[in-house]
Amino acid sequence: MSILVNKDSKVIVQGFTGSEGSFHASQMIEYGTQVVGGVTPGKGGSHHLELPVFNTMAEAVKETGANVSIIFVPPAFAADAIMEAAGEGIELIVAITEGIPTRDMIRVKSYLSDKNARLIGPNCPGVITPGEAKVGIMPGFVFKSGNIGIVSKSGTLTYEAADQVVKAGLGISTAVGIGGDPIIGTTTKEAVELLMNDPGTDGIVMIGEIGGGMEAEAARWVKENASKPVVGFIAGQTAPAGRRMGHAGAIVGGAEDTAAAKMKIMAECGITVVESPAQIGKAIAEALGKVGV
Fold first, then answer.
1. Does the reported pTM lie above 0.85?
2. Is the N end or the C end of the chain the one with fewer CB atoms within 10 Å?
């Protein structure tokens, strides 16, 4: 089992013919993802990567039956692309674009509130169910199929966690890079909850970073609802207060925003907290009682 994407997912690439869309669409197709076409306004009726190009999402969905979209649209137009996809009934929207204005994302969140659409991102690496579908920019070869779910704000640490899990003799059910912007679609808690309810996931790795309250929210939910072990890591342990580190949302603004505070809350909520990504694999294997397997 898995969450969000699988071999049956039909993917439309928004921003299909641009350099980023072209490169990553090729990678997704090579991985085995069922990419069914793309959207680039003004290029409808043509073909790209041997797949049809449409002017609008309405045309794309009607012709292909797509239920997933991935967005490589420039920041100024990305919010409209997200809302266009949601308006056409796309169930999962993965926004890779970095630098979408916060005001635009406030508009998107409001628009999505009554739509049957889940947004991952923006500014994220995407979602991968190993061996079935890669809807994102992650290096597919790092991920091996298994029963550990990964939720991460950081793209690079998603890959590192996957590598550590595999080196521990385990594999990944689904990995979700939720993005590090101040306003994103799916929160840490929501992604953890999906994995907790997935029968194919036996343990969860939760990677957060300084800034915001999503990790604390997720930890408190885990304390009340966990049926599987959770291993956590927080990036930015040496970050000074008041300085943004990497992601737009990674800034310490209050007492609970620091790495130390988040790690303390997570530990108090029953999560096994590690101080280095290098410890993730061993920690989740021990939590499952599979050291040496």
1. yes
2. C
Q: Is the dihedral of CA 53, 58, 59, 61 positive or negative?
A: positive
Indicate if 247 belongs to the active site: yes
Asked if residue 184 belongs to a known ligand binding site, the reply is no
Each residue's pLDDT, cut to its tens digit, for the chain (293 residues) gives 799 999 999 999 999 999 999 999 999 999 999 999 999 999 999 999 999 999 999 999 999 999 999 999 999 999 999 999 999 999 999 999 999 999 999 999 999 999 999 999 999 999 999 999 999 999 999 999 999 999 999 889 999 999 999 999 999 999 999 998 989 999 999 999 999 999 999 999 999 998 888 999 999 999 999 999 999 999 877 566 655 555 655 555 555 667 889 999 999 999 999 999 999 999 999 999 865 44
CA atoms within 13 A on the CB side of 225: 14
The answer to whether the annotation marks 249 as part of a ligand binding site is no
Homologous superfamily of domain range 11-120 = NAD(P)-binding Rossmann-like Domain (3.40.50.720)
Q: Which of 24, 47, 48, 247 is catalytic?
A: 247
Extract the tokens encoding 279.
């410890």
The Cα–Cα gap between 102 and 115 comes to 20
Q: Which fold has domain 138-288?
A: Rossmann fold (3.40.50)
Q: Is 43 annotated as a binding residue?
A: yes
